[in-house]
Amino acid sequence: MSGYRTARHCIWFTRQAASFAIFSLWFSTSSFAATTVRLNEVIRSIFYAPQYVALHIGAFETEGLNITGPKTTWGTQAALTEIVSGNSDIALLGPESALFTREAGPARRLYDFAQLTNGDGTFILAKTPMPDFKVSDLKGKTIVTTGKGSTSALALLHIIRQAGLDPDKDLTIRFIPTTSNIIPSYLEANTTFAQTFEPAIYKAVAENKGYRVASVGSLLGQLPYTAYMASGEFIEKHPDLIQSFTNAIQKGLNWTREHSAHEVAEMIAPDFKDMSVSTIEAVVDEYKKVDIWPRTVVITPDGMKKMSDLMVEGGVVNSGGEYADVVKPEFSQKAAATADK
């Protein structure tokens, strides 16, 4: 009889344990299910390394988010269309997009809420070594750059004017809409300089096709060059999600700052399968040298004014607008508290 009672108790205990396990599983998957965020990015670039770092170190998961993407749209208009149509929740692109979208249609409320990069990511390549390069050295020469009206081309025009040169008279600027054609155009006999992105600069230098002589970001100064944007409606409906997302990006910036170029390269290598880890490392190292990634995700009023002034100067928008009309700073300000943690 005692054996029977013991067996019954064992069966009862087993059933209770099973029930508890099932309840625990249900509780963990239903009450703590991650919130899905649909993310798009305007291009896939090592320039955005801290974002990929955040994805790989589990920063979003820690914040209770499940990221779908990032979907690479390969164009600003496509990235904006994703947001306006509701196909994406958040986009990574130039913060100036909020400026010209608002100017074109004030009813379309799009806001930047966190920055990822704080400067232009292009470099200047020359056919001869120029360790003491100055922008005035462009006088009388030909330089190829990105497409007319692009932010990097506007940055080049700005530093040329800042150096006292007239871009229409003192040098020849050739605008190349297709980025992959910039280096081939630079190699033509009548061209002395090129302004373009990584890893094209690194590869050209490695192949003895030129010399890296300047960082346009360093010459231009810091400004929010790439930022995260969402619609006003989405932000108002999901403030906790936006805060969690911003916290995760700050963690990605922290990790990138605290680790070596090699460690960053190894971490994000799965996102750049067509590049060797050594190439990724070299590019990350160049970006670290010029502090292209900010300490915090905060978009400051001064930084946004500098970007809007650049857009006005380039004829992209008629006026810069008010900071509060295009930036929601409260999320980045709160996340920035973790910058040194």
UniProtKB/TrEMBL annotation:
It is found in: Periplasm. One of its GO terms (cellular component) is periplasmic space. Residues 1-33 form the signal peptide. Keywords: Signal. Its main location: periplasm. Pfam families: NMT1_2. The keyword Signal applies. Belongs to the bacterial solute-binding protein SsuA/TauA family. This is NitT/TauT family transport system substrate-binding protein. It comes from Bradyrhizobium erythrophlei.
